[in-house]
Design brief:
mainly alpha; 24 helices; 81% helix; globular
Amino acid sequence: MGVIKRQGIKQSAVRYFGIGIGFLSTVFIYPLLLEEIGLLRFIQNTALMIAHFFLLGGHVIAVRYFPHFRDEGKSHNGFLFLLLLWTGAGYLLFLGLYTGFNDAFFHFFRDQPEDYLQYLPYIVPLVLLMLYIQLFTDYASNFHRIVVPFLLNELIIKLSLPILILLLYWHYLDLNWVIDGMLLAYGAVLAGIVGYIAWLGELRLRPHLGFLTRKLWKEMGSFALFNVLGTWGFILANRIDIFMLGLLLGAENWKGVGIYSINLFISEVIDAPRKALDNIASPIVADSWKREDRPHLQELYERSSLNQTAVGLLIFLLIWASLPDLFALMPNGTEVATGLWVMCFLGLGKVVDMATGINSLIIQHSRYYRFNFYATLMLAGLNILNNLWLIPLLGMTGAALATLLSVVLFNLAKFLFLRIRLGMQPFSRSTLGILAVAALAFGLGYMIPNLGEGFLLTVTSIALRSLLIATVFVSLLLYLNLAPDLHDLARQGLERARKLLRRR
């Protein structure tokens, strides 16, 4: 866990710095223009869905098969060149389908305002940028270098978008310029990641197609096929909500998407540590499977579950306990508050995903990787049906509830598969202890009332409630040693603090 812990801590620090920027934007900037932010989030989310499919599994191949190609003296046997061709073929396939079915795509939005339909073609270049950003980010993880690519991805996008929204709100830019600026920001991210890989000396573009035997090509193709369909199923099971809201909410769909996306961002604060851990753990899990080191995999599975359950629950409780106060600080906060239960259901989904540890990575890099395909395909269909049923019935809340149901069922399926097939399971008595500590901390924190209206009183209410919950939760967590890695991290932090104080 040493490399995972160090890199995970670094990336989590960067991620939470980005989250801090995103939080300020979400509370004070994005609610200013709910319809426009809804449209931008729709474009981003739709492009992301498409990009994950037309990567054709290249980002997973980049990690899974790098150990087979690794050879610094031979430019890793042309692996990066192969990945670029692979991803380029995926984008050409997308362009062909988009050109052929362009009219059918826009037919879905025939009832939406014409003023906004003109911006949907921006999805096409955004897909290209997202394809290669994802590919190069995953490729960099092979060298245990994920912090800088992540820093570029987090900060450039999260700094540029609120600035563009403010310029639009102040009438310095129109919506066309805002979307052009968003594309430039993604282009800057891609250029930065490629430049960083070149700086590491790993931008090795020399082809070596002779290394790719027919057997290896067939194995990679089969692995990619099931993973791309599995990834697409996962996206449909977990990320189709904004797309379907854009289709089904009716006349005020973009405002609804805007409100939903703001609450979605608040919920995404919860699983920042999981994303950091996955990026670092993926190549290590792949290497463990290559060595058939199942005890190491079981250890990673258990400890990732404990650590993520503790952190995920704490963040969820801090947000949920003070969410009404948070809405009170926002422009158009009354409208955004209609998404209260959106945040609740999406947040619980994040906690469930974190509590089940690195189950997806263990399956993805094993010889049972096809299971991800079958499970996610089933859940994708279920999620689409749930959205079609619940959005007309419950609106935004229906989309969030559909996502929660999909996440729970998907993780239950993976849990049962790993338990039955491999004899692995992540839970222990410590898991129950963490749940009990969380319930106690939340109960005590919830007793602190709102101190009154006004910015200072509202912020004070949030601070006092959060301080009590965090103090009770962390103190009991460390005292009972319920999450050993977090306990060790706290001990190391105290030792460093003591050394610094002694020097002074």
